[in-house]
Amino acid sequence: MPRAMTRTVSIGPVEDTPLGMTLERHLLDRQRRMPEATGDFTGLFQQIMLAAKIIGSRVSKAGLSDILGRTGTTNVQGEQVQKLDEFANTVIVQTVEAGGHVCVMGSEEVENPITIPSQYPQGKYVLQFDPLDGSGNIDINASIGTIFSIHRRVTPPGQGSMKDLLQKGSEIVAAGYVIYGSSNMLVYSTGDQVDGFTYDPGVGEFFLSHPDIRIPQRGGIYSINEGNYHNWSEGTQKWVDWIKTPDENKKAYRLRYIGAMVADIHRTLLRGGIFVYPRDVKNKKGKLRLLYEASPMAFLVEAAGGAASDGKNRILDIQPTELHQRTPVFIGSPDDVADALRFVNA
Ligand code: AHG
Ligand code: MN
Ligand code: MN
After folding, report:
1. Which among 210, 239, 268 is the end of a domain?
2. Is 2 a member of any domain?
3. pLDDT tens string 80-98
């Protein structure tokens, strides 16, 4: 090849290390460091990873296939279900149920606990997930995601039950999300640190690209659906008025709101700042779901050095009473969350 034509071939995150740290190897290394590990957790995680690859592949073809658009049905939250929500839900259920690692699952798209068919073994873990988060973004080709959390079962061997699902976030064994964006990433934690893996579609693997993510102590971005201003408490309104107004101690914060919790939290983890979905003063509720949205994200953000509150209590300390329970959320850099809580509790 003439000299002018030589070029280096970019293979993404792989080029940083000779082989690259795959998510698979990362999980196996972790398993080897725990002599009591049976391989169940690694097995479950491999199935989640496979589901993420399948969903990611379909998401990237969404505009080309007839999967795009609405089914015309509503889910248990009374929201319109998009075809991709259903697809993602089915992929996760079918990938995980046969593996023998879980005894019950909970999904945003399914009203009741998802039990494991009797032909498969009942495992020792509990999986909860939001199969497709930010589904309003599908039709406009903006970022969407998948959120998941894993608990240990608390019931005796056999079929899992609601009791296994209604566990506090502080009991989470591992949580993570997959973001389907300009590149696809899987970010997860088992509580000690948070690691991010970028998908290399050429190789078909996730490679460690963001080891040990630490959220900044304070950021410069606030993220909230400000169109709901008229539905907020006075404290929340005063906090937003304050955060976007420069004063002697601070510049005005910038507003960023993607409308998919995964994408808004991903930015918050990497750049710092705060993501808020407050209580609506009319219906007295938050919008986001405790078990498969707020708790896993609170677990990740705390593991990265951040804070997560419902306005009064630590999200991870809330005892769930219902599968699809909603909660207000204030999640992000510790100093930014503390500022917001001062206003809302004044
Ligand atoms: P989902 O698509 O799983 O129902 O979640 C949508 C959620 C969340 O991702 C996002 O942060 C929030 O809804 C956006 O809500 P608003 O459109 O009310 O701002
Ligand atoms: Mn969601
Ligand atoms: Mn969803």
Report:
1. 210
2. no
3. 666 899 999 999 999 999 9
**Tokens of residue 259, six digits:** 């409308």
Residues with CB under 6 A from ligand 1: 108, 130, 133-135, 225, 259-261, 264, 287
Please tell me the number of the ligand nearest to residue 228's CA.
1
Domain-terminating residue out of 172, 187, 210: 210
**CA–centroid distance, residue 134 to ligand 2 (Å):** 6
Residue 9 placed within a domain = no
Q: What pLDDT is attached to residue 74?
A: 74
Same domain flag for 143 and 116: yes
- Ligand 3 mean position, distance from CA 279 (Å): 19
Task: Identify the residue whose C-alpha is closest to ligand 1 atom 19.
Answer: 225
The whole domain housing 62 covers 14-210
Please say if the pLDDT value at position 23 is more than 90: yes
210-228 pLDDT, tens per residue? 999 999 999 999 999 999 9
CA of 228 to the centre of ligand 1 (A): 13
Same domain, 225 and 331: yes
Q: How many angstroms separate the CA atoms of 79 and 219, rounded?
A: 33
As a whole number of angstroms, the distance between CA 1 and CA 41 comes to: 49
pTM of the model: 0.92
Q: Which amino acid is at 101?
A: H
Instruction: Determine, yes or no, domain membership for 5.
Output: no
DSSP 166-178: S--GGG-SEEEEE
